[in-house]
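Tokens as discussed.
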């Protein structure tokens, strides 16, 4: 199972450096295109979306989550935002039971 990230510019570098395929999105149209690419990429089991991008495509991402078992969609805080004290690793562990 592979990870794919859709992130705002400020948050994308860390995912790219960790080897996770990452697309940056600044507009709703870019976010929708990135979601389409992520969904069409073979082997992707988890799509990580930063909160700034998730705000653009919440309805579409939620629809994918409710209709399909995979890929799992995980919203994480964008760089500089707080996520109720949780790190990205905490979010992943909560969602799929895997520590990173």
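Sequence:
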């Amino acid at each position: 199972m592979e990870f794919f990230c859709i992130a705002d510019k400020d948050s994308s570098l860390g995912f790219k450096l960790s080897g996770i395929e990452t697309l940056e999105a600044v507009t709703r149209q870019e976010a929708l295109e990135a979601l389409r690419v992520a969904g069409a990429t073979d082997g992707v089991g988890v799509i990580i979306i930063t909160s700034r991008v998730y705000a653009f495509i919440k309805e579409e991402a939620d629809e994918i989550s409710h209709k399909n078992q995979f890929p799992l969609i995980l919203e994480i805080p964008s760089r500089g935002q707080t996520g109720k004290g949780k790190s990205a690793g905490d979010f992943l562990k909560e969602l799929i039971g895997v520590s990173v």
